[in-house]
Amino acid sequence: MEAGTPKRGRPRDPERVKRVLEAAAGQFIEHGFARASIEAIAKLSGVSKVTIYSYFPTKEALFEAAVGGCTDVVVTSLPPGALDSNNPEATLSVIGTSFLKLMRSDDSLGSFRMMFAAAGEHVEACGAFYREGPEKLVRQVAGYLRDANAVGSLSVASPDEAADQFLALFLGSAHIRTMLGLDKPNESEDAKLVRSNVALFIRAFGGQGR
Q1: pTM score, two decimals?
Q2: The domain containing residue 158 runs over which residues?
């Protein structure tokens, strides 16, 4: 059975699933993957353990779904019309701003710290985190770059590689210091970083007429 797929005979209740994922995300971040308790998640969400396992057959599947919900915020939180294939400068600025907001959030920082600590010990959970976190984000940005390349506003031979490079621009020294709990950039500093990174990316991949 595919991870996160509910068992036949018990249709998903969207509101119930939402409560489970919110409770799961809090437990995983607070206690780490190994110590997060399905019993506690059930109690916090008001859903039985049996119901949770009918939706998510393994702890890894529940973790994967919880991470995926956080990652989707980068694209789903964008305002209508933000993904304009003909205006990559504005679009990438919005994507970069949303990505930084996610990466600066306490929940995201907690998730990354938790998974780095679990690396090598919980391989399946780390794989789920990677698929539903970094890998999904790269795919989403690559999809936009393909559209921009198709209309000629950008010239991108390898959208997946270029998407990875764009997001990596935001993971420099400021991000490392934030991960280590030393300090966190303010909004003005992050806005400057977005402008600089987008300008660099446009110079590298500018399309026709640039």
Answers
A1: 0.71
A2: 72-205
